[in-house]
Amino acid sequence: MSDSYAAGDGTGRRKQAGISHKRRSGLRKWAGLLAGVALGSFATQRAAHAQYAGQLSSIVMDARTGAVLSQDDPDLRRYPASLTKLMTLYMAFSALRAGTITLDQTIPVSIHASTMEPSKLGLVPGSRLTVEQAMLALVTKSANDAACALGEFLGGGSEPQFAAMMTQQARALGMSNTTFRNASGLPDPDQLTTARDLAVLARHIVTDFPEDYHYFSVAAFRFHGRMIPNHNPMLKAYVGADGMKTGYTQEAGRNLVTSAIRNNVRLVGVVLGASSNVQRTLAMADQLDRGFDAEGVAPVARPLVLARNTVSPRHTRGGRVIMLAAASSRHAPMEVAEAPAGRRTTLRHGHRYVLASPVSGGHHIRLIGAKVRPATATTHRARAGHTSRNHT
């Protein structure tokens, strides 16, 4: 967790029996963030709204050192679209760390949250979902109704207050050119960021919350009898990629943040403003290749074919099935399936997660061009078509 939260008022410093020093520290920091928002709001910044249609902004950083390995107009102020949800998730991870919420805690769905534009789960006013379900909905489907509900929950019932908390946290992380106005990324002329700021956020997610980063590798999860697949193409299209998030609105173009690891070198990359999904994927793959090359990591082949994920679990456990897109050094086609009991991995709070496993067959689709070296990658395991204006 970042050490740069606003200071608390001392209330959380009281010793609490059975709570660790880290938990007490987290509670103080979370209370301080809420207090800071209550004391004042951020001035509206209405300048520099040009969005440079058709012009890419990009950057690649070393996740460990923060060194910039490549960049192209990284400081142009752009609309983040659903990349906004990375900060919503950062705030949720922070609250989990502080102990102010739990994964199984239920979130009420307000009328406001239910009216969000797609992409969405179709949540009904008065219904509830768990914190973990909301987080998974953000990672996979980029659901705007779930993002709003989670934001209201973390913001004391107010999405605008939560957006102010997000902006305050952005400043604390060094994201000086970012302003948030909602939890989802749906269009707002004042919700602005830069490729550099988003790389800073991605790096903090990886380094501050290693116990929660695994959520970004989830290939699908079950919600009310439906399997919700992950929209992120980089999990299958790039060797070593294991998160993070896509984003799209008409105004923003197609955005992408990706983290990938090879030979114990982890990079975070950002591409903003692509005109198509193919351009976005290729631009990210190319810049990550250049980044790994700059770090002295030998190039690897890009897979020419992929298999569709087949989600057909034999049974659920406690009403919950969560699929992880596991990395494979062989990069064989992958089928998501429930692992045998001996291979099932408990990642957090006793919740069971199912790993993807290689298959020999499947429906293959052509992907992007390849390099010539054989594919090898070091996998990282942490502890633990569009429908509307804001599809992913």
From TrEMBL:
<keyword id="KW-0961">Cell wall biogenesis/degradation</keyword>
<feature type="domain" description="Peptidase S11 D-alanyl-D-alanine carboxypeptidase A N-terminal">
    <location>
        <begin position="56"/>
        <end position="275"/>
    </location>
</feature>
<feature type="binding site">
    <location>
        <position position="245"/>
    </location>
    <ligand>
        <name>substrate</name>
    </ligand>
</feature>
<feature type="compositionally biased region" description="Basic residues">
    <location>
        <begin position="13"/>
        <end position="23"/>
    </location>
</feature>
<dbReference type="InterPro" id="IPR012338">
    <property type="entry name" value="Beta-lactam/transpept-like"/>
</dbReference>
<dbReference type="GO" id="GO:0006508">
    <property type="term" value="P:proteolysis"/>
</dbReference>
<feature type="active site">
    <location>
        <position position="142"/>
    </location>
</feature>
<dbReference type="GO" id="GO:0008360">
    <property type="term" value="P:regulation of cell shape"/>
</dbReference>
<protein>
    <recommendedName>
        <fullName>Peptidase S11 D-alanyl-D-alanine carboxypeptidase A N-terminal domain-containing protein</fullName>
    </recommendedName>
</protein>
<dbReference type="GO" id="GO:0071555">
    <property type="term" value="P:cell wall organization"/>
</dbReference>
<dbReference type="InterPro" id="IPR018044">
    <property type="entry name" value="Peptidase_S11"/>
</dbReference>
<feature type="region of interest" description="Disordered">
    <location>
        <begin position="1"/>
        <end position="23"/>
    </location>
</feature>
<dbReference type="Pfam" id="PF00768">
    <property type="entry name" value="Peptidase_S11"/>
</dbReference>
<keyword id="KW-0133">Cell shape</keyword>
<dbReference type="GO" id="GO:0009252">
    <property type="term" value="P:peptidoglycan biosynthetic process"/>
</dbReference>
<feature type="active site" description="Proton acceptor">
    <location>
        <position position="85"/>
    </location>
</feature>
<dbReference type="GO" id="GO:0009002">
    <property type="term" value="F:serine-type D-Ala-D-Ala carboxypeptidase activity"/>
</dbReference>
<dbReference type="InterPro" id="IPR001967">
    <property type="entry name" value="Peptidase_S11_N"/>
</dbReference>
<keyword id="KW-0378">Hydrolase</keyword>
<feature type="active site" description="Acyl-ester intermediate">
    <location>
        <position position="82"/>
    </location>
</feature>
<comment type="similarity">
    <text>Belongs to the peptidase S11 family.</text>
</comment>
<keyword id="KW-0732">Signal</keyword>
<keyword id="KW-0573">Peptidoglycan synthesis</keyword>
